[in-house]
Amino acid sequence: MLLPRIITALALAAALLAGLFLLSAEQFALALLPMVLIAADEWCRLAGWQRPLLRVAFALALVALLVAASHWLGGGWLLLDYRSVDPARVAWVVQAAALLWAVILLWIQGYPSSALLWARWPVMALLGLALLAATWLSIVFIIQLPSGRWWLLLAIAAVAFADVGGYVFGRWLGVHKLAPVISPGKTWQGYGGGLLANALLALVVSAAVGLPLGPLAALLLVVAAAAPVGDLFESMLKRHHGVKDSGAILPGHGGVLDRIDAQMIGLPLFYLLVSQLGLVV
Length: 281
Fold this sequence. Notes:
- The chain is an all-alpha fold.
- The chain has 10 helices and 2 strands; from the N terminus they run αααααααββααα.
- A hairpin with a 3-residue loop joins β1 and β2.
- The longest helix is centred in the last third of the chain and has 29 residues.
């Protein structure tokens, strides 16, 4: 399984870099929509909705939500006219996403009894629509910043470093379980490793491009601290429904949701913080 996992990771990284630097911001956002729709179909699997009609209806509802949100933000169809977007409404979207993740954290802490609150189909439907929409919108918000391609790359890297640091330190030093009921393999030592990896990333980026180390470190450490919540949330859903992976489209990695679970919390939080810390010139 290791070789397919490495090959898939390299292919995904190459596709990401090519899309980021060869496409316009608008083209890149549109190119991600098929992946978002695949993630929507995988969400249906996690929710236990197997009927094709329900899965198609959920995907259409997500597209409708993205179109409606884009018009509400002032950006026209799918934010293709980003110059007209209302910054106050953008801030509201990422703040609402952060608040939703705070509620999800409480559900994670209260599992399995919290399933009474979130496992019903109307809640799962609204959750999936809100989280997937906020993820795609946050990508657009970040890439439209000055030097937005580099900020988006840093946002993705921060979550990836938290994941890799957590894996390495968890395997090396892991003893104390982070969430034994949901994900027995995660440890507090691994969690600390993810923070350390991002502290090192902040040092390297600050030295390379001259960004102030204090605000940059604060940005990356907060994102790294929050990222495991996304992973734990998906693990909670999979454990509750008896599912190993969200899908099988990515060899060695499972589904799209298995790859973006931590990004779903990391990206809105990254935009919320980077726009407040004075890092964007």
